[in-house]
Design brief:
182 residues; SH3 type barrels; 5-stranded antiparallel beta sheet; 4-stranded antiparallel beta sheet
């Protein structure tokens, strides 16, 4: 387990306790003076747009619930600090054919991709519906109309809905945030 390279490891935590584990681990790093071996603790999140009570708001959603990322030099001392942090349940690892468990570090490209995803300026809109599903329009000129999802464009955050006007189906393109599931 003794290496001398900075690497990222995936630490398993109790789900819902990721932020608390991050705070606890950062306090332990400081109090146990292992800042030269444990460098960063990250809870991967991304901004997501949601509508609640008619209001649009941006919420940070955890990308990997139950997991945090830790950049550290893996050795007995640093692993001891991480392992004994309240809320930590383990580390993502492999087992060789002799039964020895080895922690698996993340590939540098994977880490860059996760960190880049977290820095995204535009919040992702959560898509909670599928083609063929009935929805209600909750915003705009067609408010309270009922329709059926015909097409989804996740890149643009748009949904095409077939709405019945005077007995005739008409396609209407709306923002994801203008519709809700029935």
């Amino acid at each position: 387990m003794a290496q001398n390279a900075r690497e990222w490891f995936v630490i398993h935590t109790y789900s819902g306790y990721e932020d608390r584990v991050k705070t606890n681990l950062e306090h332990r790093i400081e109090s146990m003076d292992v800042g030269a071996k444990i460098f960063q603790v990250v809870v991967p999140t991304e901004d997501e747009m949601e509508i609640k009570d008619g209001q649009r708001r941006t919420v940070a959603r955890k990308v990997f619930p139950g997991y945090i990322l830790v950049e550290m030099i893996m050795d007995e001392e640093s692993w001891h600090v991480v392992r004994n942090t309240p809320g930590v349940t383990g580390i993502v690892s492999t087992q060789d054919d002799k039964g020895k468990i080895e922690p698996v570090s993340l590939d540098e490209d994977e880490v860059k991709s996760i960190l880049k995803q977290m820095e995204s300026e535009t919040p992702r809109v959560r898509v909670g519906f599928t083609r063929g599903q009935s929805i209600r329009i909750v915003d705009g000129p067609f408010i309270d109309f009922i329709g059926v999802v015909d097409d989804l464009n996740e890149e643009k955050g748009k949904v095409k809905v077939m709405v019945s006007f005077f007995g005739r189906e008409t396609p209407v393109e709306l923002d994801f945030l203008q519709v809700e599931r029935l």
